[in-house]
Amino acid sequence: MNWAWADGSRSVCAATPRPQFTTTVWANGSVLSGDHHEQEFTVEAPADPGVYWTEIRATGVPHLDTVSWVRSNPIYVRSPAPPAQAPPRAAATSSVAIFGGTASGWRAEHDPTSLAAVEPVAMVGGDELRFRFGLAGGASVGQVAALAFDTPQGVAAYDRLTFSIRAERPMRISVQLRAGDDQGESAAIAGSAPSTPTARCRITRSSSTTSRRWGRRIA
């Protein structure tokens, strides 16, 4: 995704890798322009400050059409005036663990050609949730493996997610909060986090797996 200015106007230049993929341009959490299948296209953007990003979905692949295939890093367009200092985030005063020693509520997702499994394991430091996966070899045709946790009671009362992960080698994972019956377009939280031999990550609703705990602040 690129920016272009001409005669005071602002444009977003993006691309779609293949016709069976669909590209959507987002602005401030709402769709600015969607349903693009062109190899290259340009969208006019408002002149106001905002946060923009593009999302590509494999709409031509049945098992991948409900999740993001690629999501760009956000581009922040600031006002010429200095930004207001954000108040510090209050510490969470109430939290709920979504892993309590069993795999209850957790499930593995994967494309038809790959494998994935989730299981609780007893470690020296306490119980952990282990996610094992193997992506199918060959050409890249949408191989994917994911660890999912359902929240039928909703997460509206919570404003942050904190989790600890470790892996056999460094890698980057994608973290999504999917909403709606189709688990499709409306993602309240989406981001990425590094997985190193030991890493502790926090994702907040305002900024934006092996999940460990939802936290909330009570005024």
List the helices and strands and how they pair.
Blueprint: E1 2-6, E2 9-15, E3 22-27, E4 30-36, E5 40-45, E6 50-57, E7 68-71, E8 75-77, E9 94-97, E10 106-110, E11 115-123, E12 126-134, E13 145-149, E14 160-165, E15 171-178, E16 187-195, E17 199-204, E18 213-216
Antiparallel strand pairs: 1-2, 2-5, 3-4, 3-6, 6-7, 6-8, 9-18, 10-13, 11-12, 14-17, 14-18, 15-16
**What's the total number of strands?**
18
CATH class of the largest domain: Mainly Beta
Terminus-to-terminus distance: 39 Å
Which runs of at least 5 residues are low in confidence (pLDDT < 50)?
Answer: 182-190, 205-219
The helix content is under 10%
State the oligomer.
single chain
Approximately what portion of the residues adopt beta-strand conformation? over 45%
Question: How many domains comprise the coordinates?
Answer: 2
- How would you sum up the global shape? flat
Q: Roughly how many Å is the radius of gyration?
A: 19 Å
Under the CATH scheme, which architecture of the largest domain would be assigned? Sandwich
Number of helices, counting only DSSP H or I runs of 4 residues or more: 0
The chain-level mean pLDDT equals 75
Written as H for each helix and E for each strand, in order along the chain, the element string is EEEEEEEEEEEEEEEEEE
Structural class: mainly beta
CATH topology of the largest domain: Jelly Rolls
**Biggest beta sheet summary:** 5 strands, antiparallel
What does this protein look like?
With 219 residues, this protein is mostly beta strands. It has two domains: 2-77, Immunoglobulin-like (Sandwich), CATH 2.60.40.10; 94-216, Jelly Rolls (Sandwich). It has strands at 2-6, 9-15, 22-27, 30-36, 40-45, 50-57, 68-71, 75-77, 94-97, 106-110, 115-123, 126-134, 145-149, 160-165, 171-178, 187-195, 199-204, 213-216. Strands 3, 4, 6, 7 and 8 form a five-stranded antiparallel sheet that branches. Strands 9-18-14-17 form a four-stranded antiparallel sheet, with no helix packed on it. It starts with a strand and ends with a strand. 13% of the residues are buried. The model is unreliable at 182-190 and 205-219 (pLDDT under 50).
